Amino acid sequence: MTTDQISAAIVAAEMRAAERPPEPWRLRWWFEDRSGRLVLGQAPNLAAGAATGLQIIGRAPFVPQKGRAVAGLLGQVATGLWGADELIRGVTPARRVIGAATLGVLAARAAGQRRRRT
Prior knowledge:
The chain is an all-alpha fold.
């Protein structure tokens, strides 16, 4: 198969997927990308990796208190960036929902901390 044939097949599949109406009642729909391919896993992006690493450092007992506080705050920021990125550019509907839920949890935590301070 030549690259032109492969490109034509991909374009045809994307056009068929675009013509289908959304079917959120189907479990598979939540895990399909825009071309109709099933996406169950994906390598983490930089924001996800940074958020995970910073959250681990923020909870490590051998790190000084100030370092844990800074790492924890930066981890929250990286988590928010990751959630916003997934909400906007998520490959599947499930990834976009996870991004929205992440932002919701961060907002609820921030509101709870603000209430405790006042």
